[in-house]
Structure formats: structure tokens, C-alpha cells
Amino acid sequence: MTPRNLKYPLPRSLFPRAMLIVIVPLIALQLVVAFVFFQRHFEGVTRQMTRNIARELAVAQQVIDTSPTAEIAQLRLTNLSQPLEIALSLRAEELRPGAHRRDLFDLSGRALVAEMADLLGGQLQIDLAADRRQVDVRLQTDKGVLRAVIPRSRMTVSNPHQLLVLMTATALVLAVIALLFMRNQMKPILQLANAADAFGKGRSVPYRPAGAEEVRRAGAAFLSMRQRIERAMEQRTQMLSGVSHDLRTPLTRMKLSLAMADAMPEAREMERDVEQMEQMLNSFLAFARGDQMDEVEDVHLPALLEEMAEQARRGGGCVETDIRLEPAELPTATLRRAALARALQNLLSNATRYGSRTRLSLRTTPRAVQFIVEDDGPGVPVDRREEVMRPFIRLDSARNQDRGGGVGLGLAIAQDVARAHGGALELSDSEALGGLKAVLRLPR
Asked: A Pfam family in this protein (predicted)?
């Protein structure tokens, strides 16, 4: 596996990664300590105890060699068994040298067999598997096979279960302490991430830098950035509001003058021009107020959808609705109702202006909400869909301007509303109606 691929098995979140950094070395240390201890405990101590037994078996072998007959040797072995605490016997059987038996994971047994073979020679057969509480040793002599049955406890120490339990408990306690410490260290980072995410969705939640020095510095930088952005948005809104106020005064005078000059043939045309200028001014203000949105609230999605569709029908549009909720028992979402209504109104206005048939659909999942507006109009070329969502962009060749006034802010306002909620506005072709399909996707 290349270093480039090593990053993929790692957890995506910072907290599990930090826990891995703590727990993996802890486990590695425990394994190293256990390996070193067990190696010395089993092999070192087992070899020393085995040497003592080997000396006693050497004495028994010497007794056999000095006995004139096998019967006398057996009698002497019987008398020797009690003081040595070893069951000694002389058997007339065939020995299979080297045919030792032990369990696969019997670490102390491996050291025992190796030490006995070094001390007593190759004419030896040891069985550790028949009875785990005993060691069956068979040694070839000139008068037969010497069999010695030795308690296992005299040749190897018992497994240190208490030490294993202590090591495991210590590792668990250290892991819990590390978990609590890392959780406490992660809280300021999560608070900063939540504050930044909320600000990206247009909400200004209370935040106070805390935690380590580096996290505090990042939090202070975020607060400074948030203040500068909010100040810039406020200045922009105030400037455009002032411009609006200055422009509305002469527009109002013109409307009054035109109302008093109904007899003039040009009065109606000039009045329409004034109304269009006022509509353009309202669009500018709506776009300027895009960042200064209302507070979030629980919005009943099907009711909002039907309300917007009915409003478009009153304006002369042919609008059908399609609602699909998943799960059905969650018809509400926490959104900015006025801003969302303004975005849907702009999308429906575009759809009814350039198409004869419009469909407004609602799709919900536990994590997202989708408002889909489709029409049967001429649509928008694929290579210009990103461009058309920028402010003051109008595609007159594709969406005929003669069908209604507009300043190119409808899609820009809808996109701003989507981004303020942490969502997005996507344009594509409508498979059902053949025109433009606008999907306003918002997180719940």
C-alpha cells in the first residue's frame, strides 16, 4: 500500500483520529511489555526449573546404569520416586526420539522441550499434550526406557492471569482518561465549526473563543472576519436603502404628475415606464437585502408550496403541484420563510413568464428539502446556466424579454437565498415538461 492510499482507511472526523493517535501507541506499548515479560517469564524461569528436573532425572539415569539388572533398577527407582516427587518407572518399550507433543500456543512448553533436549541428549521423548497438568518424559537407557511423570507446576510457572487482567484494566483506564481529555479538547473546535457553519447559512450564533491557544486564535480570527463581513453587508444595505429613498421621491412626483395628466396620450406609456422603474428598484433592494434576512422558523413545507402556487395562479400562471414527503410525518423544516417565499416567487415568475405550463414540486428527506420548479419554455443553454445565475444577466435570446420586464436578478436572489441556508440552486433540463428545471436544495 502506497503512502497515498494510507489516508483512506483513516476516520474522517478529527476526534476518532486523535483517539487513534492515543490508543494505537498505548496498545503497542502494552504488547511490547507483554512480549518482553512473557518471554523472560516463560522462557527464563521455565529453563531454570527444567534444569533442576533434568538433574534429578540424571540421578535416576545413573541409578539405572549402576544397577546389575532391570528388576533391581525398577526397585531402586520406586524408592527414589517419593523423595524426588516424580513417578519413575522402567519400561521395555520402543522409544521414538524427538517425537515430542505439545500444544501450538504452549510457549513455556517450547522452552521446556528445548532445554531438556540440550541437557539430556537426543534419546528423549516428551509429551505435554496428553495431560496438561503433567509432563511425560521418556529417556532411553541400556536397561529400557525410563519414564518419568512430573507435575507441570514443577517445570513451568502458571500463566500470569492476574498480570494480564491488570494490564488490560490499566489500558482501559488510560483509554477512558484519554477519551475524556480529547472530548474536552475537541469541544472548542466543534463550537468554532458550528459557529462558522451557522454563519455560512446566514445565522449569527453566539460564540466565545475557548480551548488551546491555537484554537483561541482561530476563534478570534473568525469573530473578526464575521464582524467585517456583517459590517460590509450592513453598509451595502444602508447605501442602497438611501439610494432607494432618494429615487422614490422623484418617482412619486412623476406618478402624481402623470395621474393629473390622464388626458395626454403619452401619459399611459410614461406611467408604465415609471412602474417598470419602480419594479426594477424593488428588485435591486430585494437583492441588496439578501444577506439581511429574517429569523429562522419552523415552516410547514406543503402549506408554503400551495400558497406560492396559488399566488402564481392569481397572477395568471398555470401551475400544478407535486408533493412527496419522506418521511411523511416530518412536513416541517427550520428555514427563513420570507426569504424562501421570495426565492420561490422569483422562480415561479420566470417559469410562468416564459412557459405556458409550470410544475412546482416538493421533495423531502430526513436531511434535505428540494423545491423543484419546471416549465415548458425555451429553457437555458447548458453553457450559460452558471452565467444566468449572476446578477443583472438576462438571456433575451433564450428567454424573450418581450414577455415581461426583468433586470436579471430573479435567479441571483434565489441563489443567494439557497446559499444563505447552506444549500444550492441548480439548473437543468426538465424531462417532464421539456423546458427549464430549477432545483432549490436546502438542508433541514
From this structure: HATPase_c
Question: Could you tell me the CA-to-CA distances from 389 to 203, 353, 395, 416, 418 in Å, in that order?
Answer: 23, 17, 11, 10, 12
| Calpha distance 223→140 (Å, rounded) | 88
**Which sign, positive or negative, has the C-alpha torsion 240, 245, 248, 253?**
negative
Q: 333 is written with which cell numbers?
A: 423544516
Which grid coordinates belong to 135? 509432563
Q: Of 321, 315, 316, 334, which Cα lies nearest the Cα of 372?
A: 321
The per-type count for the chain, helices as H runs and strands as E runs, is 11, 11
pLDDT tens across 45-89, in order? 888 888 999 999 989 988 988 888 888 989 998 888 888 888 998
Using alpha carbons, select from 108, 118, 126 the residue that is nearest to residue 44: 108
CA distance 134 to 117: 18
Phi-psi region of 372 (alpha: psi -120 to 50; beta: other; left: phi over 0): beta
Assess contact for 26 and 175: CB atoms under 8 A.
Answer: yes
| CA distances for 394 relative to 160, 288, 289, 420, angstroms | 82, 18, 21, 23
What residues does each domain of the chain span? 14-154, 213-275, 293-443
| Of 102 and 8, more confident | 102
Measured over the CA atoms of residue 332, residue 336, residue 342 and residue 347, the dihedral's sign is negative
Q: Is 142 within 8 Å of 123 (Cβ atoms)?
A: no
Strand partners, 103: none
Q: Of 143-152, 281-290, 354-363, where does mean pLDDT reach its minimum?
A: 281-290
Strand partners for 366:
none
14-154 is classed CATH 3.30.70.20: no
Q: Measured between alpha carbons, how far is 150 from 61 in angstroms, rounded to an integer?
A: 15
Q: Whats the size of the chain, residue-wise?
A: 444
- For the cut 70, the answer to whether the pLDDT of residue 417 exceeds it is yes
Q: Is 319:356 a contact under the CB 8 Å cutoff?
A: no
Are 155 and 132 spatial neighbours (Cβ–Cβ below 8 Å)?
no
Fold of 293-443: Heat Shock Protein 90 (3.30.565)
Asked whether the domain spanning 293-443 has the same topology as the one spanning 14-154, the reply is no
